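request received
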Amino acid sequence: MGGAISEIAPFRKSFNMNFEIVWQNLPLLAQGALTTAKLVGLSMLFGLAVAVALVLLGSMRFLPFRIFVRAYVILFRGTPLLLQMFFIYYGLAFVPFIRHGFLSFIVHDATASAVTALALNTGAYTSEIIRGAFLAVPRELVEAARSLGMKATAIVLRVSGPLALRYGLSAYGNELTFLVKSTALASTITVLELTGIARRLISQSFAVVEVFLAIGLIYLVFNLVIAGGVKRLQVSLQKHDRPI
Amino acid sequence: MFERLASIGFGPAGWAPALLTGLAMTLFVGLLAVVLGFSLGALLATLYRRGSTVTKLPITAFVQLFRGVPELLVIYLVFFGSGELMAELTRATGGRIEFVMSGVAVGVVALTLVLAAYSSEVFRSAFDAVPKGTIEAAVVMGMSRRKAFFRVILPQMWRYALPGLINVAQSGIKDTALISVIAVTELMRTSHVAANATHDPFLFYGSAAVIYLLIGFFIDTVGRFSEGRIARWAAPSRKSPRSGKAST
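response:
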């Protein structure tokens, strides 16, 4: 029996947490967090632009535009993001026009590839959020505005837009937390962000759980910051509603 | 043109058999992870509901962590963690039994954890959506807890849980693509290898995309069909969870 216990002893020992590897590599983790933040920020901005373009195209009378938007949304929401990213990073390099043309930065720079894929992907989801938010605006309000003689742009800017912003904000906050998680895929095309660094540290030190918890904590901070930001924005947009 | 078609056919230079094998792997891992993940999720939701504050804390921590962390990181956790664990187990037996965990098993475990975290939230909110009056009525009628759950709560819960579960299953199928990074030859990896080998990314990433879309369409159809059947007893979709807010 004694022998059996001494054989099992190292088994237990290895489950002692050892966060040394995390403390030693704090600068690396900070760098990874910065890269992740950069990916999130850029994809969010470009994704919003894609989403607005999609919503505008989708609201046009010209049928082919509407069909294009439907197809785009179905394609980007229905296929894995990894597939989209690989197609852009590895696949487009086979196309001479893109490889040598003005779009060459996409295939030559992994970060640009990642941001392109993330922006196109989150743009599809965000366009659906914006569309749904505008659909939720009571029709009577828009009719009233029109009957007062407001122009279409004025209605969007001053009546349906502000309301849609309030309706869609929490769904957009959710989409942003998904975007944060999605940036992890950039590590598969050699961008060294948080998950890529986690992988490297784990394979170097085999302190699996410690690194996972540390990196997980950073991701949770990202999500908390986004949730907090959305909350603050919501409160400030509902100022008129606050009891005195 | 014909060469291009041949590369995706069943001929000697064709990738169709490999793609179909990849598809089978994707479906196998996806289905297993969905079944296991939903079961674990239901278990977690039950434990949470019946539990004290002390048992609620670890469940909440688990759900928040695995929902907030990238799926890829979870895959790395299980991949490297299981390697360590298996090595320790082998050492513990003095090398008499060698424990190994295949990439497929790693993928199933990792996706199960993620799907459990998401589906437990779905189950929990579905339970909260069941009108409390019906539960009270069941208790007043003298039903035991068990009977009330299976006859009154569960039939109503399904209706609220199903749209959420369909969503989680859809993202679960898409997440199977991530296990290609630990060298499991599923659909994503096969199409990547084929695209590189034939220098025809449009054809192979394109076919993979079409296959993923078809799987998603299939899940959607099954979801719609079962939603219709489950909510048969309900008034025609006045308060259906799909339509969002109840109409005023």
